[in-house]
UniProtKB/TrEMBL annotation:
This is Chromosome partition protein Smc. The chain holds residues 1 to 199 of 1184 of the full protein. Signal peptide: none annotated. It comes from Leuconostoc falkenbergense. Contains large globular domains required for ATP hydrolysis at each terminus and a third globular domain forming a flexible hinge near the middle of the molecule. These domains are separated by coiled-coil structures. The lineage of its organism: Bacteria, Bacillati, Bacillota, Bacilli, Lactobacillales. Homodimer. It comes from the Bacteria. Belongs to the SMC family. Required for chromosome condensation and partitioning. ATP binds at residues 32-39.
Length: 199
């Protein structure tokens, strides 16, 4: 799996559509302070389902929409799309190329797409789960995060390792199955009570 490209439009300081193509090897992004380097990383986190406005240095999610400058008015929509080369099928999908897109309007309307098909946030999370790109993964380490990882509680640090090792998905499935078992057990007790009353 390789990161192929990133399209950003109306997101934070990127008012105009900007396309970044990632070439083989290492990519460095350089620029003066305030030129938008961190905004690019935040665009990647956002399109992959980031839900915390605070972690995107805002107070509400609509803060990611280009808010205007003294030369240009605010926009009403932020859009980011990320494309992965998946010819090795590292991401659990039959597609050789995966394009994930997210749009947000000032009205609050929000859309996710996987290869052009409207999807739920959960589908996005499932897609990246166990790839090392998921939520709370080590793949993106923002400013200040290194220190917070060092200072994290052992159980939180273990969560990070579990995500990277691919255990997280199974833990989630186990939790879901346990909930269903508990619900079924409640239902069975109720049925037993009814049978008891009838007898
Ligand atoms: P540094 O090197 O100081 O860390 P940087 O290159 O990482 O800087 P960013 O933090 O990515 O820069 O960009 C900050 C700029 O983005 C600021 O000028 C800020 O005004 C602008 N910005 C952030 N959110 C928005 C928004 N919603 N609309 C317009 N501009 C925004």
């Amino acid at each position: 799996m390789k990161l192929k490209s990133l399209e950003i439009s109306g997101f934070k300081s990127f008012a105009d559509k900007t396309m970044i193509e990632f070439m083989p090897g290492m990519t460095g992004i350089v620029g003066p302070n305030g030129s938008g380097k961190s905004n690019i990383i935040e665009a990647i986190r956002w399109v992959m389902g980031e839900q915390s406005a605070k972690d995107l240095r805002g107070t509400k999610m609509s803060d990611v929409i280009f808010g205007g400058t003294n030369k240009r008015g605010a926009l009403n929509r932020a859009e980011v799309a990320i494309t992965f080369d998946n010819s090795d099928h590292y991401i659990n999908s039959d597609f050789n190329e995966i394009r994930v897109a997210r749009k947000l309007y000032r009205t609050g309307e929000s859309v996710y797409q996987i290869n052009g098909v409207e999807s739920r946030l959960r589908d996005i999370h499932d897609l990246f789960m166990d790839t090392g790109l998921g939520r709370e993964s080590f793949s993106i380490i923002s400013q200040g995060r290194v220190e917070s990882i060092f200072n994290a509680k052992p159980e939180d640090r273990r969560g990070i390792i579990e995500e990277v090792a691919g255990v997280y998905k199974y833990k989630q499935n186990k939790e879901k199955a346990q909930k269903e078992l508990s619900q079924t057990s409640d239902n069975l007790s109720r049925v037993a009570d009814i049978i008891h009353e009838i007898e």
